[in-house]
Amino acid sequence: MEPIRIDPRRALDDAMRAQQKLAASFRTLREVDDVDYGATEKEAIYREDKVVVYRYKGKAEPTAKAPILICYALVNRPYMVDLQDDRSLVKNLLALGEDVYIIDWGYPDGGDRWLTLDDYINGYIRRSVAAVAKHAGVEKINLLGICQGGAFSLCFASLYQDKLQNLITMVTPVDFHTKDNMLSHWTRDMDVDLFVDTLGNVPADLMNWCYLTLKPVRLNQQKYVAMLDILDDKAELENFLRMEKWIFDSPDQAGEAFREFIRDFYQGNKLVKGGLEIGGKPISLKNITIPVLNIFAEQDHLVPPSASRPLGEYIGTTDYTQLAFKGGHIGIYVSGRAQREVPPAIHEWLAKRTK
Amino acid sequence: MAKGPDPTRAPDDWQALSQQYWNAWADATRKAFGSAADATAPDKTPWHEGLEQWSRMFDARGAGGTQSEVVERLLAGARSYFALLQSLAETGADGKADPQAWAERLRGSFNFPGADAALLDNPLARALRELAGHGAKGFEQMMKGMQPAMAEARALLDLPAFGYAREHQEHYQRMAKAWLDYQQETNRYNALIARASRRAFEVFEDKLAERGEPGRQVDSVRGLYDLWVDAAEDAYAEVALSDEFREVYGALVNAQMRVRQDVQREVERVATDLGMPTRTEIDSMGKRLHALHRDAKNRAEALPELVAEVAALRAEVERLKAGGVKPASQPARKTAARKAPRKTGKKPGKE
Predict the structure, then answer these.
(1) Does the CB of A9 have a partner CB in chain B at under 8 Å?
(2) Which of A34, A297, B64, B176 is the most interior residue, by most CB within 10 Å?
(3) Are residues A67 and A152 in the same domain?
(4) Distance from B210 to chain A by nearest Cα, in Å?
């Protein structure tokens, strides 16, 4: 049987529809509002250098016994967790009674060139955790680390778990040397000292270029071909543009922290192999004995599930829960399925463990 | 079973439908933009020209900001798709249908009129080039700017350095060497991307062959395009996850950094000659400032504890002065008591 059975009339209809949408887009593209993000009102409760810790304000007072502090990655902006009204992990957690705070790392510039992982983990995160605990009037809080922020959270928990009740990691790389981890594979023969000594801070555009080359056809062509379908729909187009804005609204990376992260995590895989030190303090996942919930995405091309899944093997806790989510690295926050599944899973898990 | 296209009538159908398509497009364009659309005969005009025309409308109307960026990205992404759409719609009518023939048509569709000849049969290289990353573009622009200097440096490359300008000559030789290394690594990288492109067509054939089963046939151009994207990404991943790619990628990044570093040195040399501050100097100051900043933070963080300790010590001294009251058992006082000189009944400094 022939593998392709395309009616020329249908092909032309498809082309015609695409052209009609292109024509319509001349109107819709001019009508779309300057896309904004952040659906939920928030207030700053702590500031240090460019770092700001915000507390989100829900419609009702939180009922949870301890707050959640979200620790996002350095490589993108944290508003992905509160992108828009109907795509917001934060909003859904607030609706379930959680008290949610977030660390906004800001945009590092030349003045932040020498920030190290010690500054980020033993400095900013430790003081942010203290600030949230003080603001919420509790001794221990819940920490939710995302992607690279998850790896930071694991390091933090290894050193200061007495400040935490529970730890949640989302799409977090743990074993950086699994076979399907393309990003890690590419960094292995890179001279990161030469790289950082040359570039100083690592430009965001260079980082984005690298991410796009992970799937060059899908991310650079197919996505925009699919955009043809929504060119005549203002609301959908705004959603698309909002996501585009997030993808390319990336901070530069502080040079020294980047050097250490590539050398110790991507190249050295020290989180699982051992020998990792942050600011001279040894890190061991075995030190972490508080409850841990590890959520990862099954179709994640940036942090493959194989990189997240091994956490259970290396962590010290006996209360370890793993949740595999059907979706990608971004879909875990913004897809319709994510809105339905992820916040309740976090809330229920915390409710059983938070004192 | 669904009625399929009649292969014998397909070319006639195509001509008529194609004309119909262009008429409709011209009409839609006139309505949307209020201008006369190009009524070029369909057999002479590539379909992606419609897309180009669309983008020119935005230029003419002075659309800026987000819109023009979106238009640029969409144009880059969809150009290949429109070429594929046209190619497959045209050639799909001739009745040939085995996977290899389709793969050939697909290959042909990427070499559309106006496409860069250097990217012939290499759709993955095209996708990589179309990435709108300024981080990469900036370097390309820098390399273009360096071309005259490189031409000069190449001539000097084999000459021994001597005399008053020997340091400069050696520097140019090093730059030229770094540039040549970078070219070599770029060629190795491009060869792997070309291999991935070739492999993509093979994977596409395999995927297409699987679609010969009933119920799995591809019945739309978009479906075919999506299948091609799956094949291209699978082939790319195969190559990109190989040990060879890892070595070449690392070598390419390192080679590019060496070129950048040499250019920076040259800029610094000129800046020094002109009495301007250099990046090395700024880095040096930044590093010191950061160390001071960190030290100040640590001291500030330790301050409340120190203040409490001093207060406890003062309180204890006051108590001692007042008549030797036994120290209370507060932690800070305990520390203070440990650190304080042993009570001897003598005045300090008299022991």
Answers:
(1) yes
(2) A297
(3) yes
(4) 8
Q: Pick A209's closest partner by Cβ from B131, B226, B241.
A: B131
Contact across the interface for B88 and A6, Cβ inside 8 Å: yes
The ipTM is 0.92
**Which tokens hold the place of B351?**
């022991």
Reading the block at residue A304, the tokens are: 């493959």
Domain ranges of chain B: 21-114, 132-276, 285-338
* CB pairs < 8 Å spanning A and B: 264
Taking only the tens place, the pLDDT of each residue in B260-293 is 999 999 899 999 999 999 999 999 999 999 999 9
Kindly state whether residues A70 and A135 are assigned to the same domain.
yes
A window 153-182, beta carbon within 8 A of B: 179-180, 182
- Judge whether A241 is closer than 8 Å to chain B, CB to CB: yes
Q: Total domain count for chain A?
A: 2
Q: What is the DSSP track for A216-239?
A: HHIIIIIHHHHHGGGTT-HHHHHH
Q: Which of B36, B73, B40, B42 is nearest to B57 (CA)?
A: B36
Residues in a beta bridge with A47? A52
Nearest to A132 by CA among A51, A194, A60, A211: A51
What residues make up the domain containing A217? 8-35+203-251
Instruction: Classify residue A150: in a domain, yes or no.
Output: yes
Q: Whole-prediction pTM value?
A: 0.82
